[in-house]
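pasting for the record
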Amino acid sequence: MKINWNKYRMPIVLIIGLIQFIYSQNPLNPNLYVKINDTLYFSKYEVSNELYNKFLSDSQYKNLSDVLIDTTQWLKKDHYSAPHANYYHNHPSFSNFPVVNISYQAAKLFCQWLTEQYNKDKNRKFRKVYFRLPTEQEWEEAARGGNKDAIYGWMGNDITDKKGNPKGNYLNEKNYNNYNLLYSVHSFAPNAYGIFNMSGNVSEMIEGGEILKGGDWMHEYEFCKINTKMTWDGKPRPNVGFRVVMVVNEK
């Protein structure tokens, strides 16, 4: 019997992509980062629940109040969602979704932990690195993907694709009043640098902790513009996440 492999091509591609993504979530995997220059590497993905929960399981950090996830944020009036409060941060279905409801201080401590994990690994690529949040300038450079005229952090300057589907996760008629508020960190198409969700999904923390970049599921597409920023008090919110940069000290 002749097998029609075209019938199975897309499922096979998706499965291979998922396997590659799961492997990439090892924070020590160099394929998780995009090279911006000789010493700066930018994370392809927002930090996921899975990765953050690995951090929380470390005995050195798990009892610190500063790093705890504030699930009560899901119960606030303007973004009430009891299912998310109960399941988003610990159910396997959401393991590859961006971690939210953590403070700026928590993200800083995560970067400290990640630095420690990398520098003690015998199979590390670089001799010594440190992780931190990106500066606003670094974030914008990565979001443009090498195109100085880029308006959004995805490919092209349209907000929808040819089928009319949003190019990122921003507030629109398809997700308004929908429990599918957030998407996994590898959703939608990456930009020209291969970085995912630079615009939309969650607003991302910037070094210094006073502003957010990229827009998110709670705001319209205008907030997804690369040059747009929102002020922030550094406290947990269900629309705020982060990604990291890796700075190479010794090769």
